[in-house]
Amino acid sequence: MEELPGALGTSPSLVLRLGQAIFASASLFFMCLEIEFYSYTAFCYLVTIMGLMVPWSLTLAVVDGYSVFVRHLPPQARVTAIIVAGDWVLSFLALAASCSTASVADVLLKVGVPYCSAKLCSRYRLSAAMAFLSWFLSLVSALFNLWLLPSL
Amino acid sequence: MEELPGALGTSPSLVLRLGQAIFASASLFFMCLEIEFYSYTAFCYLVTIMGLMVPWSLTLAVVDGYSVFVRHLPPQARVTAIIVAGDWVLSFLALAASCSTASVADVLLKVGVPYCSAKLCSRYRLSAAMAFLSWFLSLVSALFNLWLLPSL
């Protein structure tokens, strides 16, 4: 069977997974560091989802790395189906989280200083942007694996 | 070829499309009627997306209705691919819009009266809930049509 670049066990997939993990970690970093993020539901939700995204992406990055550098793992239908399902669910959740965070940051900036200083709001926005990038890479991974699925 | 319930041209699909159009219209109704929704980006975004969702769903409902009640239309690969793409894009946009609206309504309720009375906030929330239901039905349609696609 031909190998599809971007599907599980290839080097583009490794790059995608590392990108997801890095952007999700950056989003967590900007949201959590010295901020009381738990006063807004949307921010707690973002932290939860990014906290799921990081281990998920890192685990699959390890599998990809093993397949690329150590021993090639042939794709299996059942494993790929589970990964596609997980990717789709996580990508929907990540999109919802990043959009919620971005719009809450927008409203807080409008409402003004007692709720959000300019510095704080820009950090919320950066966090939302990183979550959005992580969502995008996760969607790309999900699409590649979904494309591979019928041929297994 | 076997007919897949939920794919274009079947009666379950007609029900799904009508549901999408009704929920999207309800979302628009709760958001627009006597409210100055354009002061928040998230609400403008919701109105835009639901304003796209209504004609899209109604058009496909008409096609389904024609296929069910007048003359059966066999599914075509190219048409189905376009509909799947449109459904996926609209469903992502609708998810983003409903989550943004819900989280903005949540923050406005927290911030309090000058920005949002209790009655207004409950309308924002209802609007977000309707948009969420519309997203869900749109996702179901997209999944059914995607399932049908490889067999065409």
Characteristics:
homodimer; mainly alpha; 152 residues; 4 helices
Question: What can you tell me about this protein's structure?
Answer:
Two copies of one chain form a homodimer. Chain A has 152 residues and is an all-alpha fold. Chain A has one domain. Helices cover 78% and strands 0% of the residues of chain A. The first copy, chain A, is built from four helices and no strands. The first copy, chain A, has helices at 11-32, 41-70, 77-111, 118-148. In chain A, helix 1 runs antiparallel to helix 2 and helix 1 (11-32) packs antiparallel against helix 4 (118-148). The radius of gyration of chain A is 17 Å and the shape is elongated. Chain A starts with 10 loop residues before the first helix and ends with a helix. The model of chain A has no long low-confidence stretch (mean pLDDT 87). Chains A and B meet through helix 3 of A and helix 3 of B. Chains A, B: This is CASP-like protein. Chains A, B: Pfam families: CASP_dom (PF04535).
Low-confidence stretches of chain A: none
| Topology order of chain A in helix (H) and strand (E) letters | HHHH
- Most extensive interface, chain pair and sizes: A-B, 20 and 20 residues
Largest sheet descriptor of chain A: none
Q: How many H/I helices of chain A?
A: 4
Per the principal axes of the C-alpha atoms, what is the gross shape of chain A?
Answer: elongated
By DSSP, the count of extended strands of chain A is 0
Q: How many domains, in number, for the residues of chain A?
A: 1
User: How does the helix and strand content of chain A classify structurally?
Assistant: mainly alpha
Q: End-to-end distance of chain A, in Å?
A: 9 Å
Amount of beta strand of chain A: under 5%
Say what oligomer this is. Answer: homodimer
Average pLDDT over all residues of chain A: 87
User: Rounded to an integer, what's the Rg of chain A over CA atoms?
Assistant: 17 Å
Percentage of residues assigned to helices of chain A: over 70%
